[in-house]
Design brief:
about 80 residues, mainly alpha, elongated
């Protein structure tokens, strides 16, 4: 009996701040369109909140890195 092959999954791309912001812009446009059902609105909103948290965490890490770099420059 032949085995069922699982669908090929494309290799996942590394996370990108810019890509996530672009996805958020699409989500906001979808939410503002008024064409989504309530369950779709809730799902899009949840995804948007999660994406915003990822972006916020990323920016906080980068702020800390910049702060450390500035600190090393002023210590020299």
């Amino acid at each position: 009996m032949p085995r069922k092959s699982s669908p090929a999954q494309p290799p996942s791309e590394p996370w990108s701040y810019e890509g996530t912001v672009a996805e958020l812009e699409v989500m906001v446009a979808n939410l503002e369109s008024g064409n989504l059902s309530l369950p779709e609105v809730l799902e899009q909103f949840e995804q948007a909140v999660q994406a915003l948290h990822r972006c916020e965490n990323y920016l906080q890490e980068k702020r800390q890195q910049v702060g450390l770099l500035i600190e090393t420059l002023t210590d020299s």
